[in-house]
Amino acid sequence: MRRISIAVLTAFAFLAGAASAAHAGGQASAARRYAQIAAALHPSEGNYVVKDFRFHNGQTLPSLRLHYTTLGRPRRNSSGQVTNAVLFLHGTGGSGRGFLMPQFAGVLFGPGELLDARRYFIILPDDIGHGHSSKPSDGLRMNFPRYDYADMVRAEHLLVTRGLGVNHLRLVGGTSMGCMHTWMWAEDYPRFMDAALPLACLPVPIAGRNWIVRQMIMDDIRSDPAWDNGDYTKEPESGLRGAMGLLFFLISSPLHEQRIYPTRQAAARYARQFMQRELAHADADDMLYQWNSSRHYDPAPRLGEIRAWVMAINSADDQVNPPELGIAQREIRKVKRGRFVLLPITNETRGHLTHSRPAVWKQYLAELLRESRR
Fold it and tell me: For 6-371, CATH number?
């Protein structure tokens, strides 16, 4: 890929395994493992182009490119309905191909696993503004339409239905931003899926510390004179450094970092490597759009309309959605077939990024698949 997004790089840094991922040898090993998993699953990539896509704020884009990765092939019943399609939606700054990480694909999509790609048709889109889909850094910069989650979900639906010809989903799942999109899918297309797996989010508007940090990330970028209203010729490094520092604190896991960086020297070395790696692949305008796209998110009023079986999962060390808020526990009661699971803190959880470690939560996915079986 031309560039790997911030979220994917961060996921590698936190999830690759042990402290060896902090030095060059560990990173090279993780990259080789990623390539092996990706090759073994025989992914197929493509683009679906939507002509004259109209955003809900009235802006239009003459040609909206939606990139995707798929695994496996669709199967249909005697009525022509697709029976084995699974849609997984990535987080802010990520891409569909990020799900091919060994700790995700190797645990869920491999031979004999819950979502074995030989039995399921797995769809991994790049959302608007992400990956290889249309985004500000393609050239429009701050003239790119001001998309939000509603636009992104509608584009996902167009890709699935018109681009890939899928008329039913066995499962919709998503991590972080993709988790929020999963709630929206369950409300906007209530008969389109059997089950929904929202991982690491809340079904209410983003507010409190979550939005405070998002606002600070955007303000850090905009306040850097080098940003130049989005018309920079060189990335606004000072603003990006501030934004990435905030992002680190939001998604990191104190227990995990203390365990694998137990000395001042190890921690300092990782801090420098983290920032260097993220700066090498960042685009300020893309990042601004990505974080601002959550501004209208609010599934709370329609939770009672959801027909799918829902298994919502958060982890107790998630600083984005801390359990003491009590929001998920309260809101899940509105979902007719809903269940909420709070994962306890262990050596295997990774704070917010536990969403990309299915080894920790796949037992609950197995329950969801059994419960939602027709």
Answer: 3.40.50.1820
